[in-house]
Amino acid sequence: MSDASEVPERKLRHEEARRAGAATSLPSIDRGSIVANAFTDNPASRIKRPPDRPWPLEARDVSPLQWWRTLPSDAFQDAEQDILLRTLERIGVLHGGDDLAAALAGDVAAAIDVAFALMPIEDTTLTVDIAMSALMRAALAPNAIAALVLAQVIGLTYLDHGLATELAASWYTHGLRHSSNPRKFGQAEAVLLMAFRELQHSGESA
Fold first, then answer.
1. What is the mean pLDDT of the segment spanning 89-105?
2. CA 169, CA 55: separation in Å to the nearest integer?
3. Does 155 map to a domain?
4. Quick one: 138 exposed, middle or buried, by C-beta within 10 A (0-12, 13-18, 19+)?
5. Could you write out the three-class secondary structure of the chain?
6. Is residue 134 included in any domain, yes or no?
7. How many domains does the chain have?
8. Global pTM value
């Protein structure tokens, strides 16, 4: 249940994430371009799903590795979290490097790194599903920054069910709810949005 608003170097980020009670920081963003139509505002922070409107998809409808792109945060009770954990524990990593292995083992900083390395997500491959499921596990820990990153990645990814904005909103709300400092959470959101804008601008200039 941690958050921060700074963007430190990668080594420091991993060091801090492993300390008991340390804040998990946002990653330095120096990777490829974000999709050209990525929004530069955050509608997820303003949209709430009406409580009387049931979510149209259920956990039993899809594979656990697809839950990150189909289910809102409030769909994850103890049973779903247990299934997710057991699913990730059974995955053997042949490719993807140390970060993916660490993410699958529950390293929050590594899970955030891997998610950013995937951007922009153009195809939802098995590798993407595994990496994003590891990030979702971190968000459910709960970790506020992991939830914020998950919300933003979902909001920047085309999902064919048309519920991406509401899905992103649920994870944004989850992160805000579990933030130890809502003011810093808002600052972290601003830093992340700025990073996405820079990536988008970089992509358009390339």
1. 83
2. 13
3. yes
4. buried
5. CCCCCCCCCHHHHHHHHHCCCCCCCCCCCCCCCCCCCCCCCCHHHCCCCCCCCCCCCCHHHCCHHHHHHCCCHHHCCHHHHHHHHHHHHCCCCCCCHHHHHHHHCCCHHHHHHHHHHHCCCCCCCHHHHHHHHHHHHHHCCCCHHHHHHHHHHHHCCCCCCCCHHHHHHHHHHHHHHHCCCHHHHHHHHHHHHHHHHHHHHHHHHC
6. yes
7. 1
8. 0.72
* 157-199 pLDDT per residue, tens: 889 888 888 898 899 999 999 998 888 787 777 777 776 666 5
Instruction: Locate 158 and state its tokens.
Output: 């085309």
Give residue 124's domain range: 10-19+56-205
Residue located via tokens 């098995």: 126
**Phi and psi of 24, rounded to 5°?**
-85, 120
For range 15-26, the mean pLDDT: 36
The token pair that represents 57 in the structure block: 């998809």
Q: Is 36 a domain residue?
A: no
pLDDT at 3: 47
Q: Is 29 part of a structural domain of the chain?
A: no
